[in-house]
């Protein structure tokens, strides 16, 4: 089974999540698939994050899944 990474710290899954992230105030900074740091842009209506290996993730996409 592949290792998943914490999107806020980049550490292997199971580590602690920062308080701001738990409150939904912080966008993800690391890719959950590879743990690499992503390019993140915060907008007034959300955020977008791009991993050089796994593509782009947008907060609007996550809202439609809920």
Automatic annotation (TrEMBL):
Region (Disordered): 1-21
Keyword Iron assigned: yes
Aminoacyl-tRNA synthetase among keywords: no
Cofactor(s) needed by this chain: iron-sulfur cluster
Keywords: Biotin biosynthesis, Iron, Iron-sulfur, Metal-binding
Domain Biotin synthase auxiliary protein C-terminal: 38-66
Entry's family note: Belongs to the BsaP family.
Function: Required for the activity of the biotin synthase BioB.
The protein, known as: Biotin synthase auxiliary protein
Organism expressing this protein natively: Mycolicibacterium hodleri
